[in-house]
Design a protein that fits this description.
Length: 191
């Protein structure tokens, strides 16, 4: 698919046309992922019963240091790269998991599958979201995400109670202690 007449196009024109198409599609991919990620973050907090004055879910980086605040474009695995790759994109959800202010990160992987966007919970299931989004699918995803978190805590508790703890199993989680969260700068509220 070239914008340049193939009969008169130089090899560079052919290359440039191909690169421009790639760039357009990679930006479209990122926009689709980010839009869905923001809908998941905001919707999941509402699903959990969160209130604007007490946010319970933020978009956070999928790996490395994080704080319970909206990291905006820094929440996505493509952040800081010189160009947007046309590939699946990882992002994290920082979720408040206790009444004491403890937070946990869940890593999600988004990949376009034609007109559908697949979201895979690291260590869990994959959900497919069509455009426009179906509220019933989103609610089912939120219910599964809560159960995924509950299952992890229950599994770890059972392992301890039966003397089998220590291995833990990597399922895409890490914790942010209340003391660490208190040191973080105040989080901006979503509009």
């Amino acid at each position: 698919m070239s914008d340049t007449d193939p009969k008169t196009a130089s090899p560079f024109d052919t290359l440039a046309d191909s690169a421009e198409r790639y760039g357009t599609l990679s930006l479209e991919n990122y926009s689709r992922v980010r839009s869905l990620a923001e809908a998941i973050s905001n919707g999941f907090c509402q699903y959990l019963g969160g209130r604007p004055e007490a946010r319970c879910c933020y978009l956070v980086p999928p790996e490395g240091a994080w704080t319970p605040q909206d990291h905006q474009s820094g929440a996505f695995s493509v952040s800081g790269q010189h160009f947007l790759p046309l590939a699946p994109i990882r992002f994290g959800l920082g979720v408040r998991v206790s009444r004491n202010g403890d937070w946990m990160r869940v890593v999600l992987i988004a990949a376009a599958n034609g007109t559908v966007m697949d979201i895979h919970i690291e260590g869990g299931k994959t959900y497919s979201f069509e455009t426009p989004r179906n509220d019933a699918v989103m609610q089912a995803f939120f219910a599964h995400l809560v159960q995924h978190l509950v299952d992890w805590f229950d599994d770890q508790s059972r392992r301890y109670e039966h003397g089998e703890y220590g291995g833990g199993g990597g399922i895409g989680f890490d914790f942010l202690e209340r003391e660490e969260a208190a040191k973080a700068p105040p989080a901006p509220e979503a509009p």
